[in-house]
Write a structure and sequence with these properties.
The chain is mostly helical. It is built from 20 helices and two strands. Strands 1-2 form a two-stranded antiparallel ribbon. Strand 1 and strand 2 form a beta hairpin. Helix 7 runs antiparallel to helix 13, helix 8 runs antiparallel to helix 10 and helix 15 runs parallel beside helix 18. The N terminus and C terminus are likely disordered.
Length: 509
């Protein structure tokens, strides 16, 4: 049962008391309370995850490395958590750029983040009520539909669509422009009688609620996933089967699937006792938050308020089902079910539940389709997602937390992370998708992924060879220096192995 809290009505000319609850979508919290309060003992049951595997299942092992669950411990007393040093982490400082390699925390450049989760939503609403001009100009699409941006939209169904260029041409409004264009192109605005002002306000708020500080999980990623989802929905098997409601849900789910992503993964939220982990009991924490945030914006703008109550509630539930399917920890569950359907050849797209399942699989493919893009685009996405991993690893090091697997920049590179992701996550999924829809697009995606994997492998070999060549010269230089100083101990040590190894970073030639 969902509990709704009624905010007190306050005069606009009076300051807001600290006890007033600030809200964002379906999530409310006190602006004066700690984000890391002690959890309810009844909510300490923690979930290992939806993946069952044995030691030989490399795919499941790799997925668990991407999203490792925090396991419950026998006799773990909740009051002991107060002694953990990381409980004082302020979630608002997660995006502070850390001075990597600095010896003092005081030397790291600190700056306040642009927005604060749900509190930012409250402040934004207050500005609108007070008549303060918004930061994003509310021009409808007349200007954006001219010039190069309009030319790009005419080819929005091409797989080599450059979302980075499109974002520049739309002045950072790629998600708004693209989503509106697709809704209008399908005729969904007119068919569902969507109010233009409400729709525009909804899209502006959705784009604003993505964190621009995130290297990867930002509005450009959401726009990229929306464009990929459109490509999949145009595939022959789906184009002739999807209803107008399916199309609307598919576009909205793609646009909002990572709404308000904090730039850290679920295990980080769990081990820092973040209130979202407590709220959703350590189960699909981020995905539940994305869904509830999207529902909150739908209700706040009243975009679907003109529809019958039962229809709008059903759409909200189905929207949640699509977004929850993007949980990487449930990858094997969906893939196994997809494989069984294909083996038994019992998928019937005239069946509403089967169509919904295919939409779930399409969204999962769109969410992780970066390895299937042309190299120039795929490489940029790979660097961005790896940098977001490494930033979380830096935060974990700073606060003396165990660094998540693949998140340590000192022992991982872009190449080895991407090769592992393609091998254990992307290739199995897109192989099954090709079985379902063996089209030119599917073959193109598999071809790009093979080339990209080979390119990363070549870069890895090049970096390894450069490192090996540098090691003897480093040892020789130390030996000569030691001999010149008459330091026999240093010379002996350098003669064995070099004490300074060159780390394999993420630089590409």
């Amino acid at each position: 049962m969902e509990v709704c809290y009624q905010l007190p009505v306050l005069p606009l000319d009076r300051p807001v008391p600290k006890h007033v609850l600030s809200r964002r979508g379906a999530i409310s919290f006190s602006s004066s309370s700690s984000l890391f309060g002690a959890p309810d003992p009844r909510q300490l049951s923690q979930r290992r995850g939806a993946i069952s595997y044995d030691s030989s299942d490399q795919t499941a092992l790799y997925i668990r490395m991407l999203d490792v669950r925090v396991r419950s411990q026998v006799g773990f007393e909740p009051e002991r958590r107060s002694s953990h040093p990381y409980l004082c982490i302020d979630f608002r400082t997660l995006h502070t750029r850390l001075g990597y390699g600095s010896t003092s925390d005081s030397t790291a450049p600190e700056r306040r983040v642009h927005r604060l989760l749900s509190f930012q939503r409250y402040l934004h609403s207050s500005r609108m009520l007070r008549g303060v001009p918004q930061q994003i100009p509310l021009h409808i699409l007349d200007e954006d539909y001219t010039g190069q941006a309009r030319c790009m939209l005419e080819k929005v169904g091409n797989w080599n669509f450059d979302i980075f260029l499109f974002d520049k041409l739309t002045n950072g409004n790629s998600l708004i422009t693209l989503t509106f264009h697709l809704l209008n192109q399908y005729g969904l605005v007119e068919l569902f009688q969507l109010d233009m002002v409400k729709l525009w306000r909804f899209l502006v708020m959705v784009q604003e609620d993505y964190h621009s500080d995130n290297p990867y999980h930002n509005a450009v990623h959401a726009a990229d996933v929306t464009q990929a989802m459109y490509c999949y929905m145009r595939e022959p098997m789906l184009a002739k089967s999807l209803t107008s409601c399916d199309l609307l849900l598919g576009i909205l789910a793609a646009a909002t699937h990572d709404l308000d992503h904090p730039g850290v993964n679920q295990p980080f939220l769990i081990k820092t006792d973040h209130y979202l982990a407590t709220l959703y009991r350590n189960t699909s924490v981020l995905e539940n938050h994305h869904w509830k945030s999207a529902v909150g914006l739908l209700r706040e703008t009243g975009l679907l308020s003109h529809l019958p109550a039962e229809d709008s509630l059903n759409m909200e539930r189905e929207l949640g089902s699509l977004i929850l399917a993007t949980d990487i920890s449930r990858q094997n569950d969906y893939l196994s079910r997809f494989r069984r359907h294909l083996d038994q050849e019992n998928l019937c797209l005239s069946n509403a539940s089967h169509r919904h399942f295919i939409l779930q699989m399409a969204l999962k493919c769109a969410d992780i389709c970066n390895p299937c893009r042309p190299w120039e685009l795929s490489k940029q996405w790979s660097e961005k997602v790896t940098e977001e991993f490494f930033q979380q690893g830096d935060i974990e090091k700073k606060h003396k937390l165990e660094v998540s697997p693949l998140y340590d920049r000192e022992i991982n590179t872009v190449g080895n992370i991407q090769i592992g992701f393609m091998t254990y996550v992307a290739e199995p999924l897109f192989a099954e998708w090709t079985r379902f829809s063996d089209t030119r697009l599917s073959q193109t995606m598999l071809g790009h992924m093979g080339l990209n994997k080979a390119s990363w492998g070549a870069l890895q070999q090049e970096q390894t060879s450069v490192s090996k060549e540098a090691e003897p010269s480093s040892a020789g230089a130390e030996t000569e220096g030691a001999a010149a100083r008459g330091d026999s101990n240093t010379a002996t040590a350098a003669g064995g192995t070099s004490s300074k190894e060159i780390p394999q970073g993420s630089r590409e030639s």
